[in-house]
Structure formats: C-alpha cells, structure tokens
Amino acid sequence: MTRVTLDGVRKSYADTDAVAGIDVEISDGEFFTLVGPSGCGKTTTLRLLAGFEEPTAGDVRFDGEVMTGVPPEDRGVGVVFQNYALFPHLSVRENVAYGLKFHDPPGGVSADERVADLLDLVDLSGLGDRDPGALSGGQQQRVALARALAPGPRLLLLDEPMSALDAQLRERLRLQVKEIQSELGITTVYVTHDQEEALSVSDRVAVLRDGRVEQVGAPREVYRQPATRFVASFVGDNNLFDGRVVGADDSRVAVRVGDRQFGVAREARGDTAGSVQSVAVGDSVTLCVRPEHLRVVGGSNDDEITAKTTNRFPATVRESEFLGATTRVHCEWAGRSVVLSHDDALSGDVTLDFGPADARLLLD
Ligand code: ATP
Prior knowledge:
Elements: E1 4-13, E2 16-26, E3 31-35, H1 42-50, E4 57-62, E5 65-66, E6 77-80, H2 92-98, H3 111-121, H4 137-149, E7 155-159, H5 167-184, E8 187-192, H6 195-201, E9 204-209, E10 212-217, H7 219-224, H8 229-234, E11 239-248, E12 252-257, E13 260-265, E14 284-289, E15 295-298, E16 312-322, E17 327-333, E18 336-342, E19 349-353, E20 359-363
This protein binds adenosine-5'-triphosphate.
Keywords: ATP-binding, Molybdenum, Nucleotide-binding, Transport
Protein name: Molybdate/tungstate import ATP-binding protein WtpC
Family: Belongs to the ABC transporter superfamily. Carbohydrate uptake transporter-1 (CUT1) (TC 3.A.1.1) family.
C-alpha cells in the first residue's frame, strides 16, 4: 500500500497549463477519483503519477519518496486505459502473464499460479485460452485490470476504464472494480468525467477545473456541501439562484431572490455546517437547491404563496421528462429555469417549496 502526495504539481505545455498547481494527499488503500469536464487536467495528472510525464514544478511522492526521474517501470504502478490496449495476438492468459514479463510475481508464487489467481479475481477463470477479440468490452477491460494487477503494483491508475462500455455494463464493472480494490486494499486513482461514477465508487473525489482542484471530499460531502458554484453545478443537478442576504440570526439566514425571501438553516441536515456559517447581511450569494428537495405544494393560488417568509415560490411547468424511477420536471420562475424531481409528470402553474435545511448558500 502506498500514500501518494501531489505537492504543488504543475505541468505546462507551450501555451497551456494542463495542471496548474495541485496539492493532494491520497491515503494508503484509498479509492481516490479525479473528476471534471473535458480538458480539466485529469489524464495529465494520472500520467504524472505513472511517470509518463514529469512535472514542470512541484513533486509527486510515493510514501514520501520523490518520484521525479523514476521511470514508469520502476514506480510500481499498474495502469488501465480507456481503450483496453490488449495484445490481440496473445490469449487472455498470455495477456495477463505479460504483466509479469519484467517483474516477478509477488508472494513467491509461480507466474502460472499468479495468472490463475488473477483470472479468478476478475471472474474470467474459464476464458484464459480465448483471444481478446472474442470477449465482450467489459471482459476485455477485466483482462486489462488483471494484467495491471499481476506484478502486485503499489498503486493502481485507471483512466476512464468504463467509458467505451454501455451504461449497464459500466454499472456492473464499476462495482466489480470497487470490490476488487477493497479486497486488495490497493491505493487507486481513478479518472472519469462521469460524476455519478465518481460518487458511486470513491472514498474521496477531487473535482478539477482548469488544472486546479475545486474541492476534495467524500462523495456525500461534495454532493451535499459543494464549496463552489462550479462544483454545485457539475456534481449532480442543482438549481442555482442569484440572491442577496437580507437578514441573519444564530440559526437562519434570510435571502432575497427576485421578489421572494427564503430562509436557509445555518446548519444543513445531517452534515457539518458549511459556508452558510460565514455569510453576512448584504452579501451576494448563490442559493442552491437540489431537484429532489423541491416539493410541489399546490396550484397557482396566490393566497398560498403570500407568506413571504416561507420557502414557497410560483413556477410554470415547461416540460416533464419521464426517467423511470422519477420524472424530471422543468419549470420557469420569473425567467429562471427550475428543475425538480417528482414522482409523476406535471403541467400548468405550480407552487414549489423547499426545507430551510435542504438549501445551501455559496458566497459569490
Ligand atoms: P479529457 O476528459 O478530455 O481526457 P482531461 O481532463 O483528461 O480531458 P488532459 O488530457 O489532462 O485533460 O488535458 C488538459 C489540458 O492540457 C487540455 O487543454 C489539453 O489540450 C492540454 N494538453 C494535454 N496534453 C498535452 C500535450 N501533450 N501538449 C499540449 N497540450 C496538452
């Protein structure tokens, strides 16, 4: 197991900072995910860990040891890429054994035993003699994983390993990868642009934007307590309203959005307090409300929404999107788009409401 440190790591190309200064500490045995939109520096960060690139500034350290100048084959990393990169002319077994070409198997076992163990681990024991071309995408990716794990690496690096697979297979494979990772207890850095995937498998995620870390935290924390407007909008759906703080006491903050006033609890439900703690009267803020926290309280009856201190506001339904388990309803409120999760389609004018402890305020 290995602790990984990125200390002020930068990687510049001619006119771009692909990685613009990253400080992160990844613990022994942690499943750590780099997530963010295309071009935010995820792959470059992974390549810096693997040793395919050297940082322009800063250090990569494994267990405190600076890795600068250590070539990839001497770092003890296993890498799985998006496109499998299996050898088509070698059988599944030979592909996995290739991982042992330059390293002895760990634990004093023979190469044959090691390969058999790994095929068992990735649930492909019966398919050792097949050509990779005769396997499904998910199976091929499991071969690639077994090959990367064969020499017993101290660190596993996964670069969008699921992105070529269909949705159902992706879900199954990510559970398998997570299980294997916990069983081996191997420190893992996973790259994805898929925020749902990131939330589902990780111990912690780092949300990247323009080569920098916007927020690092456990999936729940990043989802429930986004630190910035970017994180609030990138991780899951969110309604973001521009507002101004008009009142504050020990337990609540009053925020004006358009012609409405909303109350937001200083302490969010079930979570540690976030930036709501630090806002003051007059601050410009973003009010964030998740679609699943918006409730429909009735029709467009003005009487119901006159009480200015409740969190009710009127909206007009534009479209209902049936998603199976839930329906995503797109509405408009005085020029603002509003999205909510509901158990059925809606139409016409509605009144929406949210709990004071379910909203979050971000300082602009
Ligand atoms: P994606 O999800 O699209 O793979 P990413 O988050 O992995 O994106 P990177 O591939 O790390 O992003 O790229 C980050 C930035 O650095 C991009 O603007 C990219 O064009 C640039 N970049 C990456 N590699 C090089 C290179 N070898 N030369 C010049 N620019 C590069």
